[in-house]
Amino acid sequence: MSAVSAQSLIHTEALAIDDCWNRIGIYGDKSCAVLPEHIHCRNCSVYSAAATRLLDRYSFEQEHVEQYATRADERKVATRSLMIFRLGDEWLGLATRCLDEVAPMQPIHSLPHQRSRALQGVANVRGALVPCLSLIELLGLDPTLAGTPSLRVMPRMLIMAAHGGPVVLPVDEVDGIHNIEERVLNVASASGEHASAKYTRGVLQWKTRSLRWLDEEQLLGAISRSLT
User: Fold this and answer.
1) How far apart, in whole angstroms, are the C-alpha atoms of residue 46 and residue 24?
2) What contacts 165, CB < 8 A, 6 or more positions away?
3) What is the pLDDT of residues 21-53, one digit of tens each?
4) Which of 63, 100, 163, 228 is deepest in the core (most CB within 10 A)?
5) Number of Cα atoms under 13 Å in the Cβ half of residue 103
């Protein structure tokens, strides 16, 4: 099964779910009879069951999807396109080909009986429930890296194209998309400076910053394990 068909099945599964929270719930006209009792849809068993159903589909489809691979034509280019973003004081870069979009931060709703420490819950992205994972937890970073709200910089959500469908990765700041020379990346990868850094291909100097270049294949594998 291809990644495209797997994502199509996830989309079909999402359409089959009665998203009552968008019609009569907190995101709709608030006419739901049990809304006053629960105060918010995230406290309702219907909402939790829908989120669990989607996570179960992610787990099932992961078993049938081929491992993510870098296309040969992209390895031949002189530069690589990276999305550069910040977690706390640390700057990181991730291949743009594995990202769908960058979106404004949305509320993250926790789920009962979390399956992993990295899984923070779900976020409502254009009416669809999307799993939200902590990059700090996935990368094994110091939890104190979590940024504090700023009036100057707004946090963002990276929507990553995982094998089973999109996932949300909250970050403190997004600098943008930048083309980095292959030569610079190869030197960073060969330096060995990243040997003890989890899911990292290399560490390089970018502008006046130290930039950690993430290994998207290893990161996708960690995301898949966190959703199964």
Assistant:
1) 13
2) 6, 7, 10, 11, 54, 57, 58, 61, 130
3) 788 888 888 898 888 887 888 788 888 777 777
4) 163
5) 21
Which phi and psi angles does 46 have, rounded to 5°? -65, -45
Question: For residue 89, what are the CA distances in angstroms to 20, 142, 146, 171, 183?
Answer: 40, 11, 9, 11, 26
Domains recognised in the chain with CATH numbers: 3-62 (no CATH), 72-226 (2.40.50.180)
